[in-house]
Amino acid sequence: MLAAALLLLLTPMVSADAAGQGAPTDSTIDPGQSACSGSASSSNDAYSVGKHVAGVFITLAVSATGILTTIVISTNASLKSRRGVITALHLTKFFGIGVIAATAWIHLLPDAFANFTNPCLEGYWNVYGGGNYVGLFGLVAGFLVQGIEMFLVKHHHDVEPAKIHEEHKLPMSTSDTDVSIRSVQRPTTASDEPTAAPPPSMAANDDTALTLTAITGHGHSHHHGGNSLSPNSHPNSHPISTILLEAGIIFHSLIIGVTLGTTADDGFTSLLIAIGFHQFAEGAALGVLLSSLSRKTFALPKLYAAGLLYPLTTPIGIALGIALRDTYNANSQTAILVQGILDSLSAGILIYNAYCELISKEINQSGQFRGLSRGTKVASMLFLYAGAGVMAVIGLWA
Question: Which class for 277: exposed (0-12), middle (13-18), buried (19 or more C-beta within 10 A)?
Fold first, then answer.
């Protein structure tokens, strides 16, 4: 749907470019105008195809290492049961939240503003105020994520009401069940009638809901106490927000791949190193978030398919950049709009997910987080800021 909307937006721009090329030109050529119509790089710039091809495999290896390492560790029963590994995954998740938020604010939004305020952008795109389009497309992306998630989650609950009621009708006759129910200080008549499953945000804060889930033995989340750090102790049953988060990251990864593929040798090495660190950190963060999804709705084949999609995107972008290096013009109307719109959409998706899905649910609404020790909470917040800080430093080059 986003691709179709983008195509509709770019069609008149491509036509306008074609019309402009056929129009008569003045004998006096504006230097700025010639820069907009020229090629992306000077023919005198050194460009090593071999070095750029090597960059394809380097970014593939680095990106795959980042995301697949955390996925393998998070899904390995013998590894994820170790206290040290659990703590490392927990802190990696918070580091990743900082990475995602900083990617939106430091890497995507400035690039989007630079594109929409580019003097080479002409026509009615300047009427609205140039940079205002960044807010417009980012706002639309955030609303789309919320709307899609709300629709799909509602549909999921509507198609399985009978199953949910049956789980709460199961007999609870063991002595352990009686003890657990007596420990919940509510009228006993309330437990005799079937009730709908609480939403995830309520379940995280409601000790009664957690107790009933644990004693029936049919939930995927088991309450092991307030100090549980396991990233899978309360898995997200609705992966759509995480999938859309990956989509936003993929948009950005494709753009930086094309940029790297068209960069001349003098700036290629430093940009490759910066993008390598960027891809590794972002991949590790995304791997932990994907692994925290419920295996019921996001089985291992889907998990690894999503994990392999991310490391392939930037190398594909680099390959496209290599193929188009002689004809690609970063200052053309079409290139500016494609990069500006995709950066704006990606920023909106990442900002929504960072604050509404991750920080809100992992910290503000999480009974698990509130039950952690003060030291663990401080460490979690330090890793959150560390992730943002690392991406801020990388932003100096990429």
Answer: middle
Q: Please give the tally of structural domains in the chain.
A: 2
- In terms of residues, how long is the chain? 398
Which alpha helices (DSSP H) does 160-239 contain, by range? 161-169, 175-183, 200-205, 207-216
- In this predicted model, what pLDDT tens digit does every residue of 338-365 receive, in sequence order? 999 999 999 999 999 999 989 998 999 8
Same domain for 148 and 283, yes or no, is yes
Which of 141, 116, 139, 112 minimizes the C-alpha distance to 129? Answer: 116
- Could you tell me which of 24, 120, 55, 73 has the C-alpha nearest to residue 307? 73
Domain span holding position 287 = 46-158+233-394
* Prediction pTM value: 0.71
Residue with tokens 């019921």: 296
Residue 228 three-state SS: coil
Is residue 386 over pLDDT 80?
Answer: yes
Q: How many CA atoms lie within 13 A of 278 on its CB side?
A: 29
Q: Which DSSP helix (H) or strand (E) runs through 301? A: helix 300-323
Are 302 and 207 in the same domain?
no
Q: pLDDT at position 318, please?
A: 97
Tell whether 64 is covered by a domain. Answer: yes
